[in-house]
Write the structure tokens for this entry.
Amino acid sequence: MADFSSAFQKVVKNEGGYVNDPSDPGGETYKGIARNMNSKWDGWDIIDQQKKQPKFPASLDSNVDLQEKVSDFYKTNYWDRVKGDDITNDTIGFSIFDFAVNAGVGTSISLAQMVVDVDADGVMGVDTLTKINAFDADHFIAAFIVAKIARYASIVKKRPSSQKYFYGWVRRALGDN
């Protein structure tokens, strides 16, 4: 069984801290949780209160309640949806989870399904899990990395303004960050 706790720590490291990049369509973001896409997340109430404090945004990382909300958000919206607890290999579990966070749950599952040669419907069903768990881990990771990079190249081709993110996405896909 893949381990959520260690996968979560890697994901939030990849996602970074507090950012408010005006060119990011997600808008204000904390540990990868974009306000424009997740406006009802209750962590925003804590962040808005912390903005009034002198050590903002550094104060966010020491707020225990906020950190618990971040962990719960990722467990519910990503880890559980990719069925991370049912994936036997930690590296594969992390890779599918991390890409789900970065590109969407359905996209991550569909790419994983293509790697293991299952109908790519974006749903982590029994057949998909069985094939992933039986697949050689090194082969899966290599093929999944190639599929992720191809996806990123496609995004940049369709939306050239995303070029500035491309090399960071590739480094993330390679696990080099």
